[in-house]
Design brief:
alpha+beta, Translation Initiation Factor IF3, 4-stranded mixed β-sheet, 4 strands, 46% helix
Length: 106
């Protein structure tokens, strides 16, 4: 079992990796469409840890958008601030050349 302290250290490390990433998906004015969900799922499969940019709105709306995308792709929201959301979905067979976790030694 992972301790709370270890989990917090992992989240902090993931946030550090996320800081160096550029958004790979930008959710437009049409919101969360099936195409957006497919693209996020593909990016998560390839990169495992991705940053996405969600539409402007109030804090509650942005949080709901981030959670809806995470639920649709079976990913975990690691961090969100403003319009940026960091998502994680571990790939059991990651490509070391594409995986942000492998590239940054996580």
């Amino acid at each position: 079992m992972v301790s709370k302290k270890q989990k917090m250290q992992d989240i902090k490390a993931l946030r550090g990796i996320g800081h160096r990433l550029d958004p790979v998906v930008i959710v437009g004015g049409n919101g969360i469409t099936p195409t957006v969900v497919e693209e996020v799922a593909r990016a998560l499969h390839d990169h495992e840890l991705i940053k996405i940019k969600i539409p402007a709105g109030d804090s509650t709306t942005r949080k709901e958008c981030a959670n809806a995308i995470a639920d649709a792709t079976n990913a975990q929201v690691i961090h969100h601030i403003g319009r940026m959301v960091l998502l994680l979905k571990a790939n059991p067979e990651p490509n070391d050349k594409l995986s942000n976790l492998s590239r940054f030694g996580f």
